[in-house]
Amino acid sequence: MTNGCPEYHYVAYIDESGDDGLKAVKPVSNPGASEWLILSAVVIRAENQREVPNWVNSIKSEFRNHQRPDIHFSGLNPAKRQRACEIMANLDARYFIVASNKKNMQGYRNPAADKIPSKNWFYCWMTRLLLERVTKFVYDKSISQYREPKKLRIEYSARGGLSYPQMSAYYEWMRLKKHNPYLPWGHISWDVMHFDLMKIYPHHDREGLQLADVVASAFFKACDKHDTGQCDPTFAKILSPRMARDPDTRSGQCSGFGVKLMPSLEKAKLDPDQAEIFNFYGYPKQWWCPKASND
Known about the structure:
This protein is α/β, with parallel strands linked by helices. The chain has one domain: Nucleotidyltransferase, domain 5 (2-Layer Sandwich), CATH 3.30.420. Helices cover 32% and strands 14% of the residues. The protein has eight helices and six strands, in the order E-E-H-H-E-H-E-H-E-H-H-E-H-H. The chain has a six-stranded mixed sheet with strand order 5-4-1-2-3-6, sandwiched between helices. The protein starts with 9 loop residues before the first strand and ends in a 15-residue tail after the last helix.
């Protein structure tokens, strides 16, 4: 225990690009919310926490005339974006993204939303999909290295309307719920999670969240064509060496695990330029949790 919190051996930094608006969604409606919501996770071993500020400083040191104290992918020119991703492609970390193409969800309301103790049900559901993959990765690594599950600290980037009580209440609700008739869940490895290890911080306060911003925004730029100009998959492709695979080997499967698209590639009806990044990472083939359940 450290300061009343359980000991942990891994850390996940979670950020997003796009928004979770569903009332009006581009390109179905214009104006409207972003067509995409992309959540990312940067996962490291806890012993590397002290190195994260050095990693971010090494990226900033490559930039001329960088006035900001932090890194925001959207504020970087293409050359700086490329250099940031090149450096991140060599860090001792694993990256995950879940990408939701929202145009088929315009006006949708989750029929179970009133039963979920959180106002941000869509964001929470997206983090659920992300953590199915992150916790499996951490669980497998724990068993391999320590022969028992080890805890994961989760740090979220503060965003509009997100609160720790809402987020923790949602996960507690999902953990205790034995059956959900609306959505076929995968499997969260609850053995590696603890609610006292879930934290929310401003983006500029945590260098790890700035790394997660780069990952989320690189993939947003790869498939968005309504808010950031034409699609450019260059940056997301550069991150390939560190995108998570199952198993965690060079030949492991990335599509559906480290890179997860919702809905399926066929149902998303993406334009060819939007689909390029998902094809690059192995779609239409995709991984699915071998322990699928309704927990």
